[in-house]
Design a protein that fits this description.
9 strands; nine-stranded mixed beta sheet; Rossmann fold; about 260 residues; single chain; alpha/beta; globular
Length: about 260
């Protein structure tokens, strides 16, 4: 059975900037989804900021195995209710891959709990990505490093919590370095951040980048961890405790009641 992936993109630059529109005539989301569909074992569809509920209603997220997120110019336009819906889906086991300027998206900052700030420069300089974990599933089939001739520079310090794994480190022509591929677990969900992908460069047509994204979707997919209700907080009555308990003190709750207050 194919992994159900949804590629989300704010779809602003493509409609407002001729350079980006010409480079990505089907949108960044379309280019990424096309590459994923060609990779095998992945069924990728798209959603954008302009869609109803940003294309991410609850019923669609419930069927989504992995969500990829690209944003830049319109982070503030994403509805908070949708952000919380996505966060709950990740906690419940949906994979999340955050791309490039998505480091500053509401959903990434929500899940990281940090500013996620960094240094940057737009000069079309060379980026060399080094694999720092050769046996990691996300690096399968890749050389020990690969280069992108033109990219936007992101530099340290990167205001993120310590990653579970650092999979790539980038070097830029100006001398900066950056943790350009990092993973976390949030609730039952796998989260991966991948840095390359500036909108005015053909990064998502690069074969190595496409390999990373396909690998990342397969890695982030975690069906065994999927749960239905991350907000459930059941009350366990005294008689159901593993060891005998003599109840003491005042009680604020009724034994066996649902929820947590």
């Amino acid at each position: 059975m194919s992994i159900n992936a949804v590629v989300w993109n704010e779809n602003v630059h493509e409609t407002h900037n001729k350079i980006v529109g010409d480079l990505y005539p089907k949108g960044i989301h379309g280019a990424i989804a096309g590459a994923l569909n060609a990779a095998g074992g992945i069924s990728a569809t798209t959603a954008t900021l302009q869609d109803d509920e940003h294309g991410l209603p609850a019923e669609r997220l419930a069927k989504t195995d992995v969500l990829l997120w690209w944003g830049h110019a319109a982070h503030g336009d994403v509805e908070d209710a949708v952000v919380e819906r996505v966060a709950e889906a990740v906690w419940a086991g949906m994979g999340l891959i955050v791309l490039h300027s998505g480091h500053f998206s509401k959903i990434f900052k929500r899940l990281m709990g940090t500013p996620c700030n960094l240094t940057w420069r737009e000069a079309g300089e060379r980026e060399r990505l080094w694999v720092t974990s050769r046996n990691h599933p996300i690096t399968a089939g890749l050389p020990d490093h690969f280069e992108l001739e033109n990219e936007e520079m992101y530099g340290e310090p990167f205001g993120i919590p310590e990653p579970l794994e650092t999979v790539f480190i980038s070097w830029f022509q100006g001398g900066e370095v950056f943790r350009s591929g990092a993973t976390w677990r949030r609730g039952a969900g796998n989260v991966f951040y991948f840095r390359p992908g500036h909108e005015t460069y053909p990064t998502y047509f690069d074969a190595n980048v496409q390999q990373v994204l396909a690998n990342a979707v397969r890695w982030a997919h975690n069906p065994a961890a999927r749960i239905t209700d991350v907000t459930d907080a059941p009350n366990i009555p005294v008689e159901r405790a593993c060891e005998p308990i003599t109840a003491r003190g005042a009680k604020l709750h009724t034994d066996g009641e649902d929820g947590f207050r």
